[in-house]
Amino acid sequence: QVQLVESGGGSVPAGGSLRLSCSFSPSPRNMVWMAWFRQSPGQERVAVAAISPRTGMTFRPDSLKGRFTISRDIAKNQVYLQMNSLNPDDTGMYYCAAAFDWGPWYKVETYASWGQGTQVTVSS
Predict the structure, then answer these.
(1) How far is the C-alpha of 119 from the C-alpha of 124, rounded, in Å?
(2) Per-residue model confidence as pLDDT tens digits over 43-91
(3) Alpha-carbon distance 14 to 84, whole Å?
(4) CA dist., res. 23 & res. 107, Å (int)
């Protein structure tokens, strides 16, 4: 498996931006997806973006296109989530996850490895 460590969370006012980072080690060649999930208080964990580490192809919910961008730097063993125009609904714990078997990129059960999460709080 792989160890995942998130960073970059914090408190921002509405309209602000944050860039989350996820460092992973080792760098397994059999990773299928890497993704970011958000878990807001009292809600289920939901996918906000995913990327193929090998091809760089990205996926996002339509509702987040234009605001959230996922990218990767394989040489640095990093995956990033750039979040712009944040609003209070974006508040939650953000988790980095890695999948090693094919499955829907947006499903929690597709992912075998998870980080501890980084908190994002957006104030109105």
Answers:
(1) 16
(2) 999 999 999 998 999 999 998 888 999 999 988 999 999 999 999 999 9
(3) 10
(4) 21
Cβ–Cβ under 8 Å, residues 19 and 96: no
Q: Report the run of H or E that residue 80 belongs to, with start and end.
A: strand 78-83
The residue to which tokens 């750039």 are assigned: 82
For residue 61, cis peptide bond before it (omega within 30 degrees of 0):
no
Nearest Cα to Cα of residue 7 among 69, 94, 91: 94
- Measured distance CA(29)–CA(9) in Å, rounded: 28
Gap between the terminal Cα atoms of the chain: 39
User: Are the C-beta atoms of residues 38 and 93 closer than 8 Å to each other?
Assistant: yes
Up-side HSE of residue 70: CA atoms within 13 Å toward CB? 24
